[in-house]
Amino acid sequence: MKLILCEGDSWTGGHFIDPKLERMGTTNVNDRDNDSFRLPKLWPYKLGKLLNKEVINTARAGSSNDGIVRRIIHKIPTLLQTYKPKDLFVIVGWTSPERKDFYYKGGKIPDSWETLYPNQLDQDLSFDPDLEKFYKIYLDKFWNEEEYFDRYIQHNLLIHYFLKSFGINHFFFDAFYEIPKSLIDVNMKNTTRANKFVNIPETKVKLIQDIRDNYFVNTSFRDILVSKNDFKEELFSNYHPTEKAQEIWANYLYKNIKDIK
User: Fold this and answer.
1) Residue 128 to residues 11, 79, 109, 133: CA-CA distances in angstroms?
2) Cα 164 to Cα 170: distance, rounded to the nearest angstrom
3) Residue 48, pLDDT above cutoff 60
4) Using 50, 70 and 90 to split pLDDT, how confident is the model at 204?
């Protein structure tokens, strides 16, 4: 292992904005000018220091799992032009599966992938009445456990077998959920429910269970922080992990991968 590629949402990509940039009017945490302030505070950088390995952190605040999948599939072929598969290690911090991307064209903002946050019902889409109307229809008719649970499984299967096809070592973890309790954990512990209630075929359930048993950290980032009762105020800032929390997670991951060559 020479290079670690890290992907995820704000729990991997950070929510820290340089105060100097804020005073200049920058509000986008993903702004490239913010990288030098943001990246050293995050678990990928801290993990790289612990392992003495190079790290690339392509995670983006606000990302959906759709976005995580796109970025990994785009990035890996580029890295393979320089590195051998055995030199790469990929860590994916999945975000809440409820988030959903659509490609937005011909509206009030430039064409781009836009993320809808169905469990964050205060999302402001008033800049485009058509998009706002679509969002309401999506919430009413198309946002449901059956869809996003199955999509989460597909994301895991796709990236696992994509990386495996190149011989790239990897593992996953769940960062957090926007719902109180992980539906993924609930369903994975109850194959009957996964098979019947959300119409997931048993063969697919077995595949994802194998991935969770062999390629997942055995707890979520958020659960590790919540378990540390004495430090809760120090570990969360507007629901996001503080730098101290990022350090705790880096140390936790280090124990899981320090022996991987």
Assistant:
1) 29, 38, 9, 9
2) 8
3) yes
4) confident
Answer whether CATH 3.90.850.10 is correct for domain 3-98+143-256.
no
Q: How confident is the model at residue 146 (pLDDT cuts 50, 70, 90)?
A: confident
**Intra-chain end-to-end CA distance of the chain, in Å:** 5
Both tokens of residue 81? 């032009």
Most confident of 75-89, 164-178, 186-200: 75-89
E-strand ranges in 78-128 read: 88-94, 100-104, 112-116
Domain with CATH 3.40.50.1110 in the chain: 3-98+143-256
- Residue from 167, 166, 175 nearest 217 by CA: 175
Does the predicted TM-score (pTM) go above 0.85? yes
Helix/strand/coil for 19: helix
- Which residue from 66, 62, 16 is spatially nearest to 39, judged by alpha carbons? 16
Alpha helices in the chain (DSSP H): 10-13, 19-23, 35-38, 43-51, 65-79, 129-137, 145-166, 183-188, 191-196, 202-214, 221-226, 232-235, 243-257
Place of tokens 């890996």: 76
* Alpha-carbon span 237 to 247, nearest angstrom: 14
